[in-house]
Specification:
This protein is 87% helix and 0% strand. The chain is elongated, with a radius of gyration of 17 Å. The model has no long low-confidence stretch (mean pLDDT 86).
Amino acid sequence: MKTCRKAPLILIALGLCLMGLGYWQGELEVYFIKSINLCLECVGIG
């Protein structure tokens, strides 16, 4: 049963590592720019 409890923790740790890697490479700014553009297109302002 202990092996079943390790899987979610490993996946959470992997997800946090990948999020940190994306932040380190500067992808956060790209993400925000794309989300802002998408939002403005849906509203019809841009």
